[in-house]
Amino acid sequence: MMHGADGKTLVLSALSAQAAAQNNFEAVVASAPARLDVSGGMAVYAGGVVAQSSFSLRATAGVAPRADGSLWMADCTMPFTQAAQIAFDMQAVLSGALEPPITNNACEPPAWAKLILTTVLEFNRVAATPTAAALRRGLSISVHNPIDAGRSPASASAMAAALVQCLCLHFEISAGVIEKAHLIASIQRSLRGGRSHAVDALTVLCAHDGPPTHLLRYRSQPHELLGQIPLSHELQLLAIEIEQTNAAAPSTAESVLTAGAMGAQIIETIYRDLGHEPAGRPFYLGNISPGLYKRYFRALLPRRLRGRDFTRTYGPLPQDSIEADYVYHVRAAVDHLIGESEYAENFLQAMEELAPNSDERTPGAARRVNAQRAGRLLLASQHSYRLRLGLSSPAADWLIARLTDTQVVHCAYGARVTDMGDGGLVVALLPHTAGATDHLLGVISDYGRHFGSAARVYRAGEKHCGGTLLG
User: Fold this and answer.
1) pTM of the prediction?
2) pLDDT at 105
3) Phi/psi at 38 (nearest 5 deg)?
4) Which of 76, 191, 306, 385 has minimal Cβ neighbours within 10 Å of its Cβ?
5) Residue 151 pLDDT exceeds 80
């Protein structure tokens, strides 16, 4: 397993090779961990409660000055002798008029280079004038990213965080954590053309290094970190990365979030019609209790609603674009978003009751019941993704079903797909026992034989899981 130290060596090797031609070497290196959505998922976009952690794969970036006005980039995920290298004229990058690469005839930059280019552009957009002038003199940037960018949602946020940290230090910019989190989220939105939340960036910036594993507890209104909960020594929290994903997940998840925003606007309109004006702050679905929602609002939400019909009745959405001819499943989306927030809140309560600083005199049977309750909440989230939204993937469903098979004495307490439900990353809560580990290893082995590819397992919150680190 690669950690930040391995990435640092490769990144510095690439930068020092470039520095020989520049007669100047003042490199800055930073690394950031892979983020793990433990519970809450899409509720982060609805003002809900979410629980996140990190695991030990780390993206590493290095930055060094140049004086020739170019932006030289290298991807050192492979050994440097095989590293991909590419360069652009910095003025062309900053003006948006990119010419073909100086050292590569390819017309389209690869994904890793697009991330660097986007980061430099966004950094330039928010930087003060002196920094922008210094940026035009040129930079050497090398990156090392063992987090699979094609499958794991953890990849871009970790890499962007490491790059932002490097650039801030290189240009001696004193930026707060929240400022950096917003910049990282902006980079991801520009890169993918979709959504990204500052909460996700806060995790890669602030995650607590273990052991023990720590859960970061957020209320995303818009990005309040409420604290960190240490995981009981009786439990282990795992991130399991698999290759088989749901290709339709990004567009499905986007339509779910738009439908959820529609539902929020309908409910807000009902409040106004009843004479309850908003108190000068955004209206969040995460503030509606499941009981209140089911009793008063759920039956009033349409099951399906065409985009143009919503716009004609309720007007446009402030932050979401609506496809006029698309039929949105409004009620199912709101069901999921409110449910996700509730699952996360109850999951975190169970973790608090089991935390090392809680009353450990509680009988073992009672503690096991609490752990089982937490596991059922993860499974409830999984069922909502799979049955209500049509997300997850067959491979993730197979893996979760076997990990949580109650016919096995040492089965996992619960598991779920993460983030937007593409099925590429699964989080699992297991007893910290030899029997549970043996069961896990057996399932992972069976998975490889069944699907013809390996499932990679990482323990969340262990050593090398801390937030963005310099050097």
Assistant:
1) 0.92
2) 45
3) -85, -50
4) 306
5) no
